[in-house]
Amino acid sequence: MTRGLDRRRLLLSGAGLATAAALGGCDRLAGTAFGRRTLQLGEDANLFVQRLLLTPASLAREFPASAISPDFRPNGTIAPQDTDYLSLAGQAFSGFALTLDGLVEAPQRLSLDALRAMPSRTQITRHDCVEGWSSIGQWTGVPLADLLKKARMRPEARYVVFHCFDTMEFAGGGLEGGDAAGEAPQGRPIRYYESIDLVDAFHPQTILAYAMNGQALPVAHGAPLRLRVERQLGYKQAKYIRRVEVVDGLGHLGEGKGGYWEDRGYEWYAGI
Ligand SMILES: Nc1nc2c(c(=O)[nH]1)N[C@H]1C(S)=C(S)[C@@H](COP(=O)(O)O)O[C@H]1N2
Ligand SMILES: [Mo]
């Protein structure tokens, strides 16, 4: 199950682990008896962190195909009206490219075809919304870990942010967006966004899904690409993803709480 996980980064993501520094690669230290012992301890700790993160208990439950909900409930935005989104949707997202940037060595622009050509994961999981309903669906997509490895995260990386197409509201009520015909002036659009830490980002069930129940992801459920981060609640499952940004902190985004709903009082860690 450790499939391709970058051990050192995984360890670094286990924030605060004292041994992480020892694995930072000090060759001189490694040459001493102390260093050898420390590195050995580091290896053990590394194994421990992996086991902790990747034991079956840390996986969200997966269901048989017979459990798939016949009508998975759509929620939140179900039809984005943003012009950039509508023009991509009008051509079946053939012009879509996911941006992956921020604290990475090799920023990426990936078309849907490029994403579909990567190794995929399919999982049948239960989606729990804070509003008190659940639905079970099958999701197919690219493990986020694979994308992050492709882009090669920098050591300062701490969180992964998902920027979405859909505008939830307009901030401020400034003059932008008004027109001469007397339409009400609108402020800066506030688009949906979400974030997760590196433990969830590298979790084997964390995928950017482009298919649902064996079909292309429907618009109501987040076409062309949505996040599945299976150990957390519905609002973390960002739909309509246009950009994935690797950051070292969340303070500079939105109201600084790490997500559209978090900025409005929801918990950032929405564990189930
Ligand atoms: N971009 C975007 N992502 C979103 C939302 C949204 O409004 N916009 N709503 C969230 C909430 S509260 C839930 S419960 C799920 C709903 O996903 P579904 O429409 O596939 O059921 O999407 C989440 N992701
Ligand atoms: Mo939700």
Automatic annotation (TrEMBL):
Cited Gene3D superfamilies: Oxidoreductase, molybdopterin-binding domain (3.90.420.10)
InterPro entries assigned to the protein according to its UniProt record, in alphabetical order: Mopterin_OxRdtase_euk, OxRdtase_Mopterin-bd_dom, OxRdtase_Mopterin-bd_sf, TAT_signal
Domain Oxidoreductase molybdopterin-binding: 95-248
Transmembrane parts of this sequence: none
Name of the protein in its database record: Oxidoreductase molybdopterin-binding domain-containing protein
Protein source organism: Methylobacterium jeotgali
